[in-house]
């Protein structure tokens, strides 16, 4: 697909929530949790969390183009463009019936932050709280990306979170590499847009994450005028997989009382 065709398709898809958002479990919950995957990741990453909180939260996982049921679409390599389209998709749907919390991991944390900023100016679509995970604060982001596919795959192996069998299978690699390349290009080229939130922000990180030091996570407090909390959990870059109960409890507590959650400045 040519670049112009991709952009035109993106503009059309941006107005359709069903293109960008996946629900894995039916629920009567009014509070909403919108989850953003990591670089190379897909909406299905959030299925276990959706199952864990289905009694309290309506989980909607973002599906980026170029993976899973959108694998035929060309991936986008611009985080701001992705944020524009996702915010448009959310705003095109009905206003949430209860508080809306955004949760993003790694690249998804930057996207969740950008989407929260965009929705802050849309009446009825504002975000009640933002959870960011496994990502340096905007003021601490670095630059650069792996120069070759071999270096890119080596980084993915180091971080974990991807089935080694997939990385060792040539045909499967042909399917996932375009999305990986685009996502890492998007991360490398990302420049935070600026602006301040007023909602609570919670930053999560793993104490053994090779890419994200706790000192680079604390400055997320600068992104909001509201309450802030930081949690350091055991594990590497995908520590979330080992702390599902804790993450679930925090998401539910934020949605139940976002302004009075377990936060402090």
UniProtKB/TrEMBL annotation:
SUPFAM superfamilies: alpha/beta-Hydrolases
One protein family per Pfam: Thioesterase
Residues annotated as domain Thioesterase TesA-like: 34-250
Listed SMART domains: PKS_TE
InterPro entries: AB_hydrolase_fold (IPR029058), TEII (IPR012223), TesA-like (IPR020802), Thioesterase (IPR001031)
Keywords from the UniProt entry: Hydrolase
Domain of life per record: Bacteria
Keyword Membrane tagged: no
One of the record's GO molecular function terms: hydrolase activity
Biased composition (Basic and acidic residues): 1-10
Disordered: annotated segments: 1-20
Similarity annotation: Belongs to the thioesterase family.
PANTHER family: S-ACYL FATTY ACID SYNTHASE THIOESTERASE, MEDIUM CHAIN, THIOESTERASE
Record protein name field: Alpha/beta fold hydrolase
């Amino acid at each position: 697909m040519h670049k112009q065709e991709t952009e035109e398709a993106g503009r059309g898809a941006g107005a359709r929530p069903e293109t960008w958002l996946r629900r894995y479990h039916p629920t009567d919950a009014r509070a909403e949790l919108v989850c953003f995957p990591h670089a190379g990741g897909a909406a299905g990453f959030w299925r276990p969390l959706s199952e864990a909180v289905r009694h309290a939260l309506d989980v909607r996982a973002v599906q980026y183009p170029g993976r899973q049921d959108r694998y035929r679409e060309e991936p986008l390599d611009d985080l701001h463009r992705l944020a524009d389209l996702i915010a448009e998709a959310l705003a095109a749907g009905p206003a949430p019936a209860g508080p809306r919390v955004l949760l993003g991991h790694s690249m998804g944390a930057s996207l969740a932050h950008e989407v929260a900023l965009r929705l802050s100016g849309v009446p009825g679509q504002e975000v009640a709280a933002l959870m960011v995970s496994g990502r340096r604060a905007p003021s601490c982001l670095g630059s650069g990306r792996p120069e070759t596919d071999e270096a890119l795959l080596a980084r993915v192996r180091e971080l974990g979170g991807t089935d080694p069998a997939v990385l060792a299978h040539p045909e499967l690699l042909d399917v996932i590499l375009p999305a990986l390349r685009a996502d890492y290009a998007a991360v490398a080229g990302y420049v935070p847009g600026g602006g301040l939130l007023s909602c609570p922000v919670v930053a999560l990180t793993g104490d053994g994450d090779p890419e994200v030091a706790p000192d680079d996570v604390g400055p997320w407090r600068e992104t909001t005028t509201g309450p802030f909390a930081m949690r350091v959990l055991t594990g590497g870059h995908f520590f979330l997989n080992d702390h599902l109960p804790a993450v679930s409890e925090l998401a539910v507590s934020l949605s139940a009382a976002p302004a009075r959650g377990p936060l402090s400045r």
